[in-house]
Amino acid sequence: MGVFLNRTDLSPLQIIDKLLYLNPLKISDAVPVAVGEYRVSGSKNHPNSNSFQMKYFFLLTIAIIFSIVSSQAQSPLQFAGYDCNGNSVDLFTDLDSGKAVILLFYMPNCGSCPPPGKAIQTMSSYITDVYPGMVKGYAFPFQNSTTCTYSSDWVNSNHLGALFTPMDSGATQVAYYGGFGMPTIVVLGGAGQDKRVLFSTLAFSTGDTTIMRDSILALLGNTSGISDLQGTTSGLSVYPNPASGKVSVQIETGTFARLFLDVADLKGKQIAVIPCEKLCKGTVHVQFDTSQLPNGNYLIRARVNEKIITKKLSVVH
Questions:
Q1: What CATH number is given for 80-223 in this structure?
Q2: For the CA atoms of 57, 73, 154, 151, what is the dihedral angle to 10 degrees?
Q3: Domain ranges in the chain?
Q4: Can you list the positions of beta strands (E) in the chain?
Q5: How far apart are CA 167 and CA 106, in angstroms?
Q6: Residues 6+ apart with CB under 8 A from 2
Q7: What is the DSSP string of 6-54?
Q8: What secondary structure, in 3-state letters, does 41-78 show?
Q9: Is the dihedral of CA 237, 251, 226, 263 positive or negative?
């Protein structure tokens, strides 16, 4: 039932038709008599019985309720406080900073819930390689009775901690977004008054990761897709790595491209600019001195015709 009820493009009557799809008598056989009234035409399998009419109006009520819920869940529902790791969280702060937020709602002991989480985590890792820190994930249990201990164990045992932060008390959230799929997936984005639901499903399929990826990339300003970078460059290399002094940055461009290089921390904050803004084609070599950088991990970012690729650099003095 959830497969159809998360469809916001269906009217209440169409939803009922889907709910009765195993029934030889379709809602198209219901003839309108007056506003709010329907008379079912004759059928040898389903006569115009009181039981069928009661079933019909019961489903009509459910469909209208779910249509209202679906229409309400076009904007994110705020949550704030502490996650199960003891860190403060605030959904609207995440969104206002430009991040995409992925919510995974799971049922304890649900065998079909971890695989979608792993597929989404893999998809998001490709995005965060280009846009560090711009995708966050939260894993909520369906029930408020599920403890943080269980939620943390569930995330860790299923190896989902690279993306998903364990949370508890997800009943209000999952109901707001339309139901109890196995799992329910919601992608949120937008800042200020433009906060919105980018994607949601109660019946995850492998193709959904492509839709989610494209929605997140559009939010982050990349409309061409990460894979398109492969036709523009053949790689970014940094040597030596780890480094303590000068490093050599090399990038190969297959076509004429405008190139810009900089250094960022792992949250995406710019630390330094590498002087190299030029129009170039072929192999580009640039040197950069790391002696003034504190020990730690950084990203060398190459912007090629408004597309970005990154390479992690470790500085050890």
A1: 3.40.30.10
A2: -100
A3: 2-72, 80-223, 228-315
A4: 30-34, 37-40, 80-82, 88-90, 100-106, 135-141, 164-166, 184-189, 196-201, 233-239, 246-264, 270-289, 296-304, 307-315
A5: 11
A6: 179, 180, 181, 202, 203
A7: T-TTS-HHHHHHHHTTTSSS-GGGEEEEETTEEEEPP-SSS-S-HHHHH
A8: CCCCCCCCCHHHHHHHHHHHHHHHHHHHHHHHCCCCCC
A9: positive
Q: Which CATH architecture has domain 228-315?
A: Sandwich (2.60)
* Identity of residue 49: S
* pLDDT means over runs of 10, the chain (317 residues): 40 50 41 40 50 63 50 78 96 95 94 94 84 93 94 96 95 89 92 91 85 85 50 69 90 73 78 71 83 89 73 89
Q: What are phi and psi of 91, to 5 degrees?
A: -55, -50
Total residue count of the chain as it appears in this document: 317
Structure pTM?
A: 0.55
| Token digits of residue 132 | 């560090």
Show the tokens assigned to 153. 């164990």
pLDDT of residue 242: 92
Grouping H, G, I as helix, E, B as strand and the rest as coil, residue 280 is strand
Backbone φ and ψ of 12, nearest 5°: -55, -40
Q: 50-72 and 12-19 are packed helices; what angle lies between their axes, rounded to 10 degrees?
A: 120
